[in-house]
Fold these 2 entries.
Entry 1:
Amino acid sequence: MDKGKVYKKAIDNWGFKSQSIMLMEECAELIQAVSKLHRTGNPNKMYEEIADVEIMIEQIKTFYGDVAEKEIDKHYKNKLDRLEGLIQNAGGSKKDM
Ligand SMILES: [Mg+2]
């Protein structure tokens, strides 16, 4: 399966507006699943919703193409560096779940 072709076909079939609304809906479902995780302790629904959100994000990225990929990658690297700095500054303090 060529994921890129599937994402492009989905955008071609249903359009950017429909798929961006789907992204919002899937994000809401993920929020709900993470919330329920704290009550149930079962992560299976969260795993499913993460997959849904990732698939919708990939469709949106496909729509915007290589420029978006470069911009997102730049933000990703900056935020990962920032997180690494925060972890180093935290000095090993841990929070439990
Ligand atoms: Mg879902």
Entry 2:
Amino acid sequence: MIQLKKIVQLIITLGAFGLLSAQASAQESPTYSKDVAPILQEKCAYCHNPEGIGPMPLMTYDQVRPFATLIHDRTSKRIMPPWHVDPGIGIQQFKNDASLSDVQIDTIEAWVEAGAPEGNPADLPAPIEFPSGAEWQLADQLGPPDLIIKSSPYDVIANGQDQWWMPNVPFEGLDQERFLKAAEFKPSYPLGKKVVHHGHAVLMPEDGGRTVALARYGVGKSWEIFPEGTGMRVPTDGTIAWNLHYFPVGAEGADDVVEVGLWFYPEGQTPERETVGEVLFRVDGLKGMARGQDIVIPPHGYQVLTGTHRLDSPAVIHSYRPHLHMRGKVMTMEAIFPDGTKEVLSQVNKYDHNWQIAYIYEEDAKPLLPTGTILQFTSVFDNTANNPINPDPEQWVVFGRRGVDEMSHAWVGITYINEEQFAQAVAEKRLRQETLRLE
Ligand code: HEC
């Protein structure tokens, strides 16, 4: 009897020991199947799949293994996934956060250092399907668009310098004024996804009223959903001014067409708040004068530019999208409140012109700014050889449309509200924070 008890104890001890040692070794060396594949599936494969914009698929061990060292390099330097906002300062809650957590980066590092073992294929996560680039990304949430507008066809050249295609196309399809809820910019697939670098579709109303930017696109930003109860007024008649920047990448094709899908509030419904969408804030200190006239970056040198804008009414900020070119490195957006306090809202500190990312704030993280707030933007340009995408540090760089010239502005998704709406929004935000604290 005693012996049996001992044996049972021994088995328990051995069992516990076995479990512990298994855990310890799992901590020492993560495997592809168990630890790394789920990260790559969630954070990489939607670009790194056979038809995606990433240069190689990263979906199986055989595809990933040859790139293990490069993956370690790009993830540890936070170059991949592309996400250039400074994690050390400003708001960090974004709806479209693509970045890896510190734990995920450490897991990849430990895996590569252990020799990138495959592990047990039985541990692999279930495969997931990626929506084809031919589909509307917002269709899952919103159904098919209410209206689709199309650019006129363009013949894509394989090689050469930046190309601009700026057709004007009549706007048809609305028989009464409507409020826009969401918009998605969809280049053709697969060609357009590779060559359309950025662009926009702006409605110029027939009555000469204020222009309405229906959709703005850059690699890294293809759609916009306005917050609950917020919409953009769209008149019935006018012309769509398309502004498409094609960047030749070695592939050509005739009759390329870009589409924009539009989703509206129901007919006759006026949302509580009317937004102006993304607004351009210049970052060059010269209000109303020749644009960006003061960008003059010396060879092997730096330049810092600041622009300030006073808010004449309260506002909510939804998103932040800096626009610089190849020498642009940093753009900071700060709020200077009427009481003189100052806060960094967001800072992009690893700007890369190949990507035009809109950082879309989580609902509760959206800056809520009183009248009189000053938005202050600061751009930093690096024309030294340390800038890896600098095409030529020997040159003086000035303002211009080409990627090798410079620009300095921010696109800010903003809704101006009245004092009453502001007071209400502040009270609601307090209440939510209070409830969160109590939970
Ligand atoms: C939004 C799309 C996108 C996502 C998400 C993405 N990549 Fe990439 N990746 C690209 C593109 C495009 C390139 C090539 C251009 C560049 O380097 O910027 C690239 C380049 C790379 C390279 C360098 C390849 C070479 O030959 O130089 C590596 C390595 C890489 N990605 C790994 C990853 C990993 C690992 C993840 C996820 C943790 C990831 N990427 C997420 C689009 C993406």
